[in-house]
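Complex 281.
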Amino acid sequence: MTLLLNGFELAKQCREQLAEKIKTLPRAPKLAVVLVGNDPASAVYVKNKEKAAAEVGIQSVVYRFDTISQKELLSLISDLNNDTEVDGILVQLPLPDDLNEKEILQAIDPAKDVDGFHPLNLGKLMIGEPAPVACTPKGCLKLIRLAKQNLTGLNALVIGRSVIVGKPIAQLLLKENCTVTIAHSKTENLPELCRHADILVAAIGKPKTVNADWIKKGAIVIDVGINRTEDGKLCGDVDFENCFDQCSAITPVPKGVGPMTIAMLLENTVEAFLKKTNIRP
Ligand code: NDP
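Predicted structure with NDP bound:
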């Protein structure tokens, strides 16, 4: 029997636990979100984050700009860094081409970096020190844990090497004592590598790339991809229907990794608040 790793339900449980925790705090944690440009997908993501934050009792403030200069944006980040009421800062990516994304992300106070994209936090993940962990990788690990608690010795294959998804997921799995392989667009013989994976994480961004005969019988499959088919439907990087029976557990798209990403953002915001205030609820 294949276990459906229902990220929608797990995210709901995470939010409920957070809401209970937040009720015991002396004030609501505060999240500042910066949205620049007119990308419709980014606008939807930010709306969803705002809504989810309000539901659990996190105060969120969204700074929306059609355009803003690098200097002005850096100045806003500096103000948010210095604002003692702000616990978390998120800059919605991608930023418009005229802005230097790396410089903006590096300007965020690492303690308020609830997306976990600051180089210091990525470095801490690499050396195994506690730090905010990027939301999607963190959510993926929680989903994997629904299927299996002890991951020691398992072969994990991560397809994708982006700084915000593939690489941090690989680090988290390494920390869990998996034997980790990272594949990318130049990898040769990807199907063969997949066939050895007890855990397969697809973070490619290409619809239905992974199919059933690539999957080891009983593998745990996490599909990070969000793509649209020609008829406009959402689909992942894994051919879900085709692969389902071959896996011991698999995430759907939608309602898999996506909702967990937002839940982990809320969790990171609460954790940033707790660390700053030294409160143990
Ligand atoms: P990137 O485009 O930054 O990275 C994609 C990675 O996939 C690259 O490392 C690329 O290799 C690799 N790749 C591309 N084609 C192939 C191929 N044919 N075979 C093997 N590897 C390949 O994307 P992201 O990491 O930002 O996102 C990946 C997917 O996850 C996207 O669909 C995105 O929308 C989704 N996503 C979902 C989130 C969620 O909450 N569910 C959050 C974030 C992202 P190379 O490095 O060589 O170019």
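The chain has a mean pLDDT of 97.
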